[in-house]
Specification:
4-stranded antiparallel sheet, 47% helix, 2 domains, 138 residues
Length: 138
């Protein structure tokens, strides 16, 4: 995603700031909702009046750290996945996966065998096996 945005003229800082600005309120809302629901279900012990606020701050800091780590990873690597084999008898597909760093060095190279949803797997064939390539910039 970051490379695509860079080709469109978006600076890295602006890209990361926009992601933080969009996702931070959502994370904070989810954390608040979780605490309210857990409190209503009596799943949070009755320690003190400040305990829910302390829990909220801890959860918010953890969520923001995870968000920043995810954004850093998405800016640092590119993932490429190619379908190499589709089993006709079962909803199973084999994928060749490659993750590269910004300088083109392969960080991870391997194969993944994944299960496909039978409702999707039995749909019309899109392309012949081995010719379909999905490029995802993480």
């Amino acid at each position: 995603m970051l490379r695509r945005e860079g080709h469109a003229g978006v600076r890295t800082g602006a890209y990361l700031e926009s992601k933080l600005a969009l996702l931070t309120p959502i994370l904070l809302l989810v954390n608040g909702t979780m605490i309210i629901v857990l409190r209503a279900l009596d799943r949070i012990p009755n320690l003190s009046a400040a305990a829910p606020a302390q829990l909220y701050v801890t959860m918010a800091l953890n969520a923001l750290a995870a968000l920043c780590l995810g954004l850093l990873a998405s800016a640092a690597v590119t993932a490429q996945v190619v379908v190499t084999f589709v089993r006709a008898d079962k909803p199973v597909t084999t994928l060749a996966t490659t993750i590269t760093s910004q300088d083109g060095t392969a960080v991870l190279d391997g194969t993944a065998v994944v299960w496909r949803d039978p409702a999707v797997a039995n749909g019309p064939p899109q392309q012949r096996c081995g010719t379909e390539s999905h490029h995802t910039t993480a």
